[in-house]
Queue: 4 jobs
Job 1
Amino acid sequence: MTDISLISISVTIIFVIAGFIKKNSVLLFISQASWMWILLAGNTNSIDYEVNSKIYALAEANSGMPYQSIMYWFARQNYDFFSFNAVIATFVLLFFYILIYKKSRNPCFVLSLIFIFPFIDFVIQKRFFIASILGILFLYFFTTKGNLPRKIFAILLFILAVSIHEGIGLFAIFFLYPMFAQSNHKRLFFTILFLSALVFTSVLPQFAAMLPFVGEERAELYFVTLHEKIKYPFLTTSVFTLMHLFFVWLYYRLYRYSSMNGTNYPTGETVLYLNLISLLILPIYYWEPTFFRMFRTLLPLNYIAISNMMPVGQIYKKKLFFQGIRYVAFSSIIFLGYYFVLSAGFDVVAQPIFEDNILFE
């Protein structure tokens, strides 16, 4: 590990710890956001960088969907992939920061949790990162009260996100949110939905192949090629299922405790329902654990809701504090396990993010 990566990782750790202490400092939020922007927009190498760069190079030949048209325009103006990604990432992050700052009482707490997990994936999966932020904005506009134009705008955001990365197509399950939220028999409704998801999983590869934004080639990749590469299917499926379930369970514990003590915000219930609906994707972990990225995209909304359960500033209520510590600790464990055990290793997956940056050259 080089001196640059050690310094970069140390700065990140300092910002993470500071965010848990000074949870709503404006100056700290700006500093955290700026550092996150430097690492994300300034990145010049990561495990998927070459793949994304090749996709950008191909865009010069033709334009099509909105995202492809934007790449086409940048390529025709002789911008390289780094410049294109830096500009797009800057705009997307700006909207993301506005959402966090407006909807969280403790925005620094939110950014600290994002730094722990899943920030590294945000940097690596550049195309999915853009799509995931649009997916988060879709959920915000779709689940909050508003008129018909607001709902139409949310649906357009969903369509745009899917056109950028087909993985966000799994967010279609959240169109069930209004029915679930209004149901007087949520357990029965969820049971029916989950049993339906189990049945649907068996025909999912054929269904995905028929979707225009997926197609036979991508369906073959996810449901055949990648599936066959899994050495221990039962173990892999169990690990990602348990991760998903534990995240949801921890959030539920925090939500229930804060509700009993009158420290919950209305968004807490909305995010709880989204977490419960997300459980419908558990059966498809059998095909490929990559689909965990859908729930991973939901985590920033979890973090915002949790931050609103926390007292403002440096004040901590003992029981609520330890409930929050469990969530932070589990996120940290996931970080260690995800990048040191389940992936190619920290030095391959994460270290380039803290080392290869245009500002460090």
Note: Residues 162 and 168 are 5 Å apart (CA to CA).
Job 2
Amino acid sequence: MYIYYLLFFLLIVGYNIYNNGSKSFITIKGNKYSKYVIFATVCLTLIMGLRAETVGSDTEQYAVRYANTLARFALGRENPEIGFDALQLVFYQFLNIGYNGFIFFIALVCSLSMGYFINKYAKDELTALFVFIMLLLSMYMSGIRQCTALSLCIGAFVMADKRKPLLYIIFMALAYTIHNSCIVFLPVYLLWYIRLTRFQALLVFLFSISALIYRPYVTPIIEYLAPAKYEDMAFNMNYAINPIVLAVSVSMILFALFFVPVEDDGKKKKLSQLDSVFYIFMCIYLFFQIMSISNGQLWRLSFYYTLGFIALVPNTIWNNKKMDKSSKSLVRFIICFMCILHFFIGIRGDILQIDDYKFFWEDVHIGYNG
């Protein structure tokens, strides 16, 4: 597990190097990109892309799938998620690239998309990265298809922010061909028509947390809509939600609820447009996490909405004018420490199995390399 200690160390050292006094940027075609985020993206790509196929519970299974790319692609119409098989076909058949090379490519795509999101929407990159690691890194190193779909959903999110509905639909359609669970992200475009007051934000939170009460009545509906392939795994207790995850989620939502800045729109004080969207994301994440108590597979649906935590938690600290510099530093330290602690406690014996990290050249199970 030393590699994860090294990752946190590099992120902290890199932040102090690149953001010493002021943020350091490079400009490409008029767009500013944080040098620190680029550095962090490289670190994440190397750690995720150079892992052995035994790191991540699904990684080794996808090695078998990669070796049978031609057979799976031949299913054609019978496979609604043919986009991922088509991508594998390009690498396996036409480029003749082995499975480890394919993993590296997926890691690069996922790291670049998340790096772009953090660069564009998070004011404090270090806190955003720590929240990302806490909530998503394990999934990024195991759920190859779903994280590829999430990367496309990030593209869809950016298109929604730019009010480009056609491109939004294209990104969502592509994501659906990778992993059809991303269908839960489809209504996101409508959120840009909503701006919340703090009281309305409280009501949204109460509705989400109340899922602890009404989940027995809602779960059958969601199960009916879920893909049939998840039925056998639905009540596997290995997927049961960790109560610590709920506690952390609730604490971060409450922090955002009470401290996120509000703006006067002429009638009422409301959260900004983006803050409203990110806050609703956080509450949707909490909703699906609670629903997964009844059906463990529903936790997969929450991952698309982790973007709310990654952006809004650091932005709440950064934009809050009521906190002085020392208070912000203290809150930031507490959140980052909580993320580190949560990550290391969570990965020990976790079903996603990333705790026993090996590079691909260290592992005896290397195979399916074309």
Note: The first strand starts at residue 25 and ends at 28.
Job 3
Amino acid sequence: MKKYASYFVLIFLFFLLAFVLKNLQNKERKTTFNINFLERYKDVPTLEIAGFEEGENWRGNFTRDSGRTFDGDTGMNIFTQGKPNIITLSKPLNLTAFDAVFAYVNIDTEEMIKRIDSLVIGFQTKDNNKATFVVPPLKPGWNLLSLPKKDFKQNQFDWGQVEETSVELTAKKGETAQIALDRIWTQKSIKDKTDFIVYPKEFFNLKTAGKKTFLHLGSPLLTQVLFNKSVEENDFSYTVSFAPKKFGTFGLSFQTNTKIDEGYFFAIEGEQTNTWRLYKKEGGKEVTIAQDSLKSNIFEKEAYLWLRVEKKGNKMNLSFSVNNQQYVSFKEVEDSSFSKGYVGIFSKGSYLINSVEVKE
């Protein structure tokens, strides 16, 4: 028996090693980064003053525009020649709890800016008491207006009894001026931004839909959000839950540097949001690793969708879910360019972000 003892030891060690390796391979990933935005912002709802959609009871000289908008289906164009053009919306509002009003205004060119004499945002109560804000000079393209209530011209104005919102555009003498509007709202400031390394300041805000308040990314341009989370091991899953408001591009960036000019990018894109693509940025070049059309349109307005990237070694699996239970794989691919880096989101359009989670 003694002469076989060493063989028994080797066999035992072999099975022990096999058991350990199997358990390592099947090791359950643990959550190392998680943000539930609905929970985080549940006590800071926004108040939507105007979205310029069909059905809003605006009065005055304006046209609705489906082209100059990124937050919903339509924005609003205001023209003026000579005398001021004033448009008004009758809608009771209580703005007492908020410190500032925000709005998106678009001006096409520098030449158009020179034609504008003044742009005034105003509010009025039932007794015709008014609060007005003269907007400072703007830049070409989309501008985020941040209008502190304390800076409105007012005389004992009751912000809890607003009955009417107005926009007044005046052109310089002999000129014709035009602007576009997309959203007017108010919210409390996002105080804790420690989870973000990079974010688009002009297009990074909150939005309440129903009774739920989301992180809102709405932009006419492709914008990037980088979370303060670096994945150091090449074995992880990264999941983002969101709901589209206006279709465009939405994607996950992962294993990137802080400049977001190196790393992987998984995007749902295309004119009808009907294609997916995995690409990488490396050495100043953008290289597509895999892409395909979607078999069906997985996007529905204001319906939750989960996108997930799973990576183990050089293998990456890209998938989506409509219930966070069953995930459908787009494809499994291999690439060895990056083994660690930060996670983030990139988008163009309007999206409500529900949650992000990293498991390692």
Note: Residues 18-26 have pLDDT under 50 and may be disordered.
Job 4
Amino acid sequence: MAFSGYSIFPGLTTIGVVSPSVQELAVTFNLEAINALQMPVDEDLAWADMCGVTPALFRGKVPLDFTALDGFEEFKGVRTFKQIDVAAITADVNQWQRNLEWDLRFTQAGAEIQGVYNVANYAQAMVQHARVMKARLAASVIMQGTPSTNQAQVYAGNSIPGAGKSLFNTAHLANPLDAGSRTFSNYHAAAGAFSPTTFATTRKDMRTVPSPVLGAETLGLQVTDIIGPSFMEEPFRQVQLALLTLQTTTTPGNLAAATSNIYAAGLTPWRFWIAPQLDADPYVVSNPTKHMWISVSRKLVGARPIEMVAPTKEFTPRIQLFGDGTEMAAMTRKVHLVGDLDAGAAAGLPHVIHRYEET
């Protein structure tokens, strides 16, 4: 009976694994892959967790949860119902690959050679690269969502009044189903450099996004995440230090941790993230010394700025190990590890994400 491996890691299939050394490799790879899947996401990738992920194989249709934008209303004798499937975005699934091969003799060599070419260690790297793809896809929507690029459009494929605008725009409809709805801007060009003053404006902009159903109220959003390219690490740090100094010296003798201090018992109201994937943003490339940052609110359940489709919500790659008993190994005298990741991304709800450019 052919060896089939141990089905622990959900994305791994073994084919033609015959020799004990390759069987051991398959088992070790399985265990290391599942361990990598359970490890925390690296800090420079975790910012992409703001995205929603819907499992899909070829083309994903993601329902937009407009009910996240409204609430209870007065009963006037007749019940009115909100359609939960009134709109959905379609995200094309692109095919990505990462393939490795190694000489059959590596698995038959002594401990010294196996230690150098221990391909089981690549299990963690395979999972990690899948997570990198999630961040890269999220960054691609941000980079393509400005009015000048206008490739990532909100409510794409839907015949509703709010559709057809770039993700970042100066005239979004608070209620995308109502052409007469109040409007808001989530694209702030010429915002100035990032500083305590512009950060206060950033928080105010998020706070004042209008309610789609109530004439005078706002959605009550709050900035939870600030994201920027690598260059923004120092400006972010300077603002954090300025806010920390202000809050710890407001009252004489106050030595307690400030509320924006990450060590203040988890009470920090916002998080700063560096996303190296945004280094390729057209504005950043053209203006390497100018500030650019993204603000996000995760306070509204079901409202996500970017929607993705992938095989699983964890972005688990599909991995096939073609062992020593396959025709491919007989022809090449190599063992092959084939990794596939089919995934895509599209713009979500613009209410909860804002973009700022210094000039």
Note: Residues 319 and 358 are 43 Å apart (CA to CA).
